[in-house]
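Tokens as discussed.
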């Protein structure tokens, strides 16, 4: 089969070395073939062991959220990127923000910045969902509620102690509309408290949202 057709069977995906070795299984030296495909412009290397099909042959490029999930993991989209995606904050975010159980880290790939902020594993897995971004492209994102909790947990110096302080942070600093806050599922957020960092701040967040 033509190599272009083989690659296009994985259109819009991030490809690990192991996936490429499967595609190139009938080549005697598949690792060398991967290097050649990069040199010839068929593949773009995002980092060691991770590739995408070049836009020269694939018009459906992977969404940045999908790339973020694969670039450094385990991770999921959260913080400002998720808050903007869900329509909670008004400003478009130009850095793809994620959280991870690994060390915090930053990457730049294909002129896009990706940041990863550490969260403890006992809290990390709460409130994550798979979101379809485009045909055959899904990424793991924080729910609106989890993205907001993550923002509070990971922002240095934020300790919410009163309703007025919390409202100011939400509506003035983050510029979240009252109507959007009222739509958040505070009942689900309550279930996260036993496993959450900054329990007192998150409890105040839930109380404030409930009182709106």
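Sequence:
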């Amino acid at each position: 089969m033509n190599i272009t057709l083989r690659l296009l069977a994985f259109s819009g995906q991030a490809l690990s070395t192991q996936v490429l070795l499967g595609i190139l299984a009938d080549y005697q030296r598949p690792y060398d073939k991967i290097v050649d495909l990069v040199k010839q412009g068929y593949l773009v290397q995002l980092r060691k062991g991770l590739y995408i099909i070049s836009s020269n042959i694939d018009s459906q490029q992977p969404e940045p959220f999908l790339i973020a999930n694969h670039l450094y993991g385990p991770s999921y989209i959260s913080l400002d990127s998720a808050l903007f995606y869900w329509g909670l904050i008004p400003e478009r975010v130009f850095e793809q923000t994620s959280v991870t159980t690994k060390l915090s880290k930053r990457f730049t790939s294909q002129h896009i910045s990706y940041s990863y902020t550490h969260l403890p594993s006992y809290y990390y897995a709460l409130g994550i969902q798979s979101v379809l971004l485009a045909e055959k492209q899904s990424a793991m994102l924080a729910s609106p509620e989890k993205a907001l909790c993550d923002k509070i947990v990971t922002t240095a110096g934020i300790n919410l102690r009163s309703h007025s302080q919390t409202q100011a942070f939400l509506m003035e600093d983050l510029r979240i509309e009252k109507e959007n806050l009222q739509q958040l599922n505070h009942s689900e957020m309550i279930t996260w408290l036993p496993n959450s960092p900054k329990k007192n701040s998150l409890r105040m967040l839930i109380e404030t949202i409930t009182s709106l």
